[in-house]
Design a protein that fits this description.
The structure holds 3 protein chains of 3 kinds. Chain B is of the alpha/beta class. Chain B is built from 16 helices and 10 strands. Classes of the chains: A mainly alpha, B alpha/beta, C mainly alpha. Chains A and C meet through α1, α3, α4, α5 and α7 of A and α1, α3, α4, α5 and α6 of C.
């Protein structure tokens, strides 16, 4: 009896403070944002007072106008779909680049693996902006790479291309920034594969490609789903990459949200967009978790 | 660990010293020498923060930013800012240099009697261009068509930027179509939106400030920008010993005139320093220093004698009577109009 | 190596090159004696020199360090508590709240914290940034600590308890030293995350509280000069050093995220 009571006391003594902190600085702000999506925009920006008509005794000033505006205007749904597409393309490209890398690491001798994984992670730990800025340099019209490319294109009679300030640049940036997130779960999964399975398949006459497609890949699906979720969800909400690399193209929903809060001063509408993004993110995370659980035999 | 903490405390001490004036200003809109001589005079430190667009300034204030002393918004926003309770009324007795200002720029409809604001400098939103490149392409730059007409744009595709400001781009498009910049007719706005969308594929980017550097390095050839920024791009290109100059072009359809003003925030930590600073900037030679470095228009009569003659001859900076007639100041919008413009801007950016 | 291995190896090497080439380019151009990030004009350290005379940059660096140290200290304490609680006890809400900030797009946290601070009339500045950073750093520390605890031998703490130690003594004298490398690794990671954070800081920064990433962003938007390369190189070196130390202290902890 005493053990359980003191256990419970310990549980709240130790788990309590971080819980309280996160409730105050994470859960409550999110709830406030939910409420904000139902409020009216302030006359000069921000939010209108919660109680209209004087303090204390006024009416609760709530409205679904912002939501109505979102759903009635296809423009915003279109923007979400566009962002969805960008995130999906990013995820696919990341998968293609990450898979061979993860396989190589998984097949390397044990003593090398940690180092190889570390090498994958290190770029992730450098500043996000630096990683985006690097592509400004590489894709800029004055860069060594682009001038060389244009010379080659010129030889074949093609007009010079501009790589920076395009949707292409945005995708490259998105892929570059999120690649490590795809490699790690894939590797974690591939590492656990039993080589005996592949040997058995080979004995049964399967060639390399069939071995991969029929044995390795299906077994790696949980890793693929985890990696896809880890890339897709953050990519959906990015704004800095289109902002810096996109020029007039490639704008994503994150940019519009930022605009609502920092330029247009329409906070309720910005909150509506954020709520939709949250629902999407949670939905996809839930989907990934459900699929991963389902494929676990 | 303790040593580390005390070292930190020591390092942060200068930040805790109270003799600071917090200035929230447009980027590159003050002469560095003026800042230094003011600091020497007031024996204080000037801490500068920058914004690139009035909307950014208003958004920060709407988010409850405290701690700024002097702000430099464009005059048409002063009325709204005063109504929102973000400004404190000015005590003219503390500003003896107020008399230096030209009466033409005082007592505007945005701030009758200059209750809250004092004119600082002026800029015109117009077109800046690389004279060599445009001469090679045989394009005369005298109209907004350079920014909006696809026939001209295809010669300079990917070498044009416009401001990242919904108000400014809309105003330019309205002027191009022959309307007033303050036209609020939704049908006209729709027309303007179509015009912008037709031109957008030829633009490289929406740039609020980066275009200065892009112009002086020759990456970008035509910009929709502020006259003082374009002036600085020219200074930059000359410093870099480029073979081209950056010129201003005041479009024949007209343009937006921005009269920027100094105001004191209601929550200013050091209003006393704020008054000192404003009075300092109203002195003839300090106001002139701003114009000499940034090429901005000047509302101060005492400053005229100190301004470089070369700058005085630039029509875009000191427009003659004929050009002045085609300049308009932007008026602030109400909530509904802002929402509509907002939506149009989102569509412009998204397509 | 058979034919397929060679193809795999090539693809993997391409991936590594893709990961590192851009960073190498940034570092290389920081020594380039040219204002443009284009052709190589000669070696110079002048951009680093300019950096140290750049007042705004120094203030931003000072702010970043202050925020990083404070946020990392606070989140390490809370994160260790959370990691321990998640490991030892059955908690339902805590794991969710700890992991959610890491899983959702950052902009959502940034925006909701902005509204939160404004509504509570908390002035945006260093304090608001620190509070925000702690919120998302707790999760990382908790994960590292929890995985470290999972790898620890329970027998030792049990033995301590059998010998009469109170739970607190058992924790302080046995558990804590054992997980300390994990705790420190978590602290270093939290510091790095805080120094590097852009999105959340972007929304919660206020007057006079620019951080290095915000300053870099402003420079990228206004005038791209190799000073950006220089400060990026310095920042990268710092981060690299910290993460290498963290990985030595607690191998495998970095993979946990």
């Amino acid at each position: 009896m005493t053990t359980t009571k003191s256990q419970r006391l310990h549980k709240w003594l130790i788990g309590g403070p971080p819980l309280v902190y996160l409730v105050v600085f994470f859960a409550i702000p999110v709830l406030i944002m939910v409420l904000a999506s139902f409020r009216n925009p302030g006359e000069f920006g921000g939010l209108a007072p919660l109680f209209a008509g004087g303090d204390g005794g006024g009416q609760l000033d709530l409205t679904t106008e912002s939501y109505a505006r979102f759903f009635s205007d296809f423009l915003y749904t279109e923007l979400f779909l566009k962002s969805f597409a960008y995130a999906a393309i990013t995820t696919a490209v990341c998968l293609v680049i990450a898979y061979p890398l993860a396989m190589l690491i998984a097949r390397s001798p044990k003593k090398h693996r940690d180092l190889l994984v570390l090498l994958v992670i290190l770029p992730f730990w450098s500043n996000f902006l630096i990683r985006v800025y690097a592509w400004m340099i590489i894709l800029g019209s004055q860069s060594v790479f682009v001038t060389a490319l244009n010379k080659v294109l010129g030889l074949f009679g093609f007009a010079p291309v501009s790589l920076l300030y395009t949707s292409f640049a945005v995708i490259v940036g998105l892929v570059y920034v999120h690649l490590p997130f795809m490699v790690l779960p894939l590797y974690a999964n591939l590492e656990k594969h039993d080589p005996a399975l592949l040997d058995a398949a080979q004995d049964l006459g399967a060639n390399a490609w069939r071995r991969f497609w029929r044995v390795t890949f299906p077994l790696s699906l949980p890793g693929v789903y985890a990696g896809a979720a880890l890339v897709f969800i953050p990519a959906l909400g990015i704004f800095a990459i289109p902002d810096i690399l996109g020029g007039t193209e490639g704008i994503m929903i994150g940019n519009v949200i930022k605009q609502q809060f920092l330029d247009a001063r329409d906070w309720p509408f910005g909150s509506v967009l954020s709520m939709v993004l949250t629902v999407m993110a949670v939905g996809i995370a839930g989907l990934a978790a459900w699929v991963a659980r389902g494929s676990r035999t | 660990m303790k040593k580390l903490l005390s070292l930190l405390l020591f390092a942060s001490l200068p930040a805790l010293a109270a003799d600071e004036l917090h200035l929230y200003n447009w980027n590159d809109y003050i002469a560095p020498d003026s800042v230094k001589s003011f600091e020497a005079q007031c024996k204080c430190k000037v801490v500068q923060d920058y914004y690139g667009d009035n909307e950014e300034l208003l958004a920060k204030l709407a988010a409850g930013a405290k701690g700024y002393d002097v702000l430099v918004p464009t005059s048409n926003y002063v009325a709204g800012m005063a109504k929102a309770g973000w400004l404190q009324p000015l005590d003219k007795s503390k500003l003896p240099n107020f008399k230096n200002l030209m009466p033409a720029y005082l007592n505007t409809e945005f701030d009758p009697g200059n209750k809250y604001s004092v004119p600082y400098a002026m800029s015109i939103t117009l077109i800046g261009y690389n004279d060599q490149k445009l001469k090679e392409l045989d394009i005369t730059v005298d109209s907004w068509a350079v920014i909006f007409d696809p026939k001209i744009l295809q010669k300079i595709k990917g070498k044009v930027t416009v401001l990242d400001s919904q108000a400014e781009v809309m105003a330019a498009a309205l002027k191009y179509l022959g309307y007033s910049v303050n036209d609020r007719d939704p049908a006209h706005w729709k027309q303007a939106k179509e015009t912008i969308l037709k031109a957008k594929p030829y633009w490289a980017a929406f740039m609020a400030q980066g275009y200065i550097k892009e112009l002086s390095t020759g990456n970008i050839w035509v910009v929709h920008g502020y006259s003082n920024d374009i002036f600085q791009a020219d200074t930059g290109s000359q410093e870099a010993k480029q073979k081209f100059r950056i010129r201003h072009a005041l479009p024949k359809e007209g343009a937006v005139l921005a009269l920027d003003a100094m105001v004191i925030a209601k929550t200013a930590p050091r209003p006393d320093l704020a008054y000192q600073f404003i009075n300092f900037m109203l002195e003839g030679k300090n106001s002139a220093a701003l114009t000499n470095i940034t090429g901005s228009g000047n509302p101060n009569s005492e400053a005229m004698q100190f301004i470089n003659p070369e700058i005085k001859s630039i029509k875009a900076v000191f427009p003659d009577a004929e050009s002045a007639k085609r300049l308009e100041q932007l008026k602030d919008m109400n909530k509904k109009e802002r929402q509509l413009l907002n939506r149009i801007w989102t569509e412009i950016k998204a397509k | 190596m058979n034919r397929r291995s060679r193809g795999l190896w090539a693809a993997a090497m391409f991936a590594y090159a893709f990961l590192y080439a851009p960073l190498v380019i940034v570092v290389a151009y920081s020594f380039n004696d040219s204002r443009l990030n284009a052709e190589w004009m000669g070696f110079t350290l002048s951009w680093y020199g300019k950096l140290f005379h750049n007042e705004k940059m120094l203030i931003a660096a000072r702010n970043s360090l202050l925020i990083g140290l404070t946020a990392s200290a606070v989140s390490t304490v809370f994160g260790t508590m959370a990691g321990y609680a998640m490991y030892r006890f059955r908690m339902r809400l805590l794991p969710l709240l700890v992991l959610a900030p890491i899983a959702i797009p950052e902009i959502l946290m940034g925006v909701s914290l902005l509204i939160f601070f404004v509504l509570l009339n908390i002035s945006l500045g260093m304090v608001s940034i620190i509070l925000s950073h702690v919120a998302f750093c707790i999760g990382f520390v908790a994960i590292v600590v929890r995985s470290r605890l999972a790898g620890m031998d329970e027998g030792l703490t049990e033995a301590a308890r059998d010998l009469g130690a109170t739970p607190w003594q058992a924790f302080r004298l046995v558990t804590l030293p054992l997980i300390m490398p994990g705790v420190i690794a978590g602290a270093l990671m939290a510091f790095t995350l805080s120094i590097d954070d852009f999105v959340i800081t972007f929304f919660t920064a206020g007057v006079g509280s620019t951080t290095l990433p915000l300053q870099i962003y402003t420079m990228v938007k206004i005038a791209v000069t190799p000073e950006i390369n220089a400060v990026s190189t310095l920042l990268m070196m710092l981060t690299l050093a910290l993460i290498l130390i963290a990985s030595k202290l607690s191998p495998g902890s970095l993979r946990a995220e």
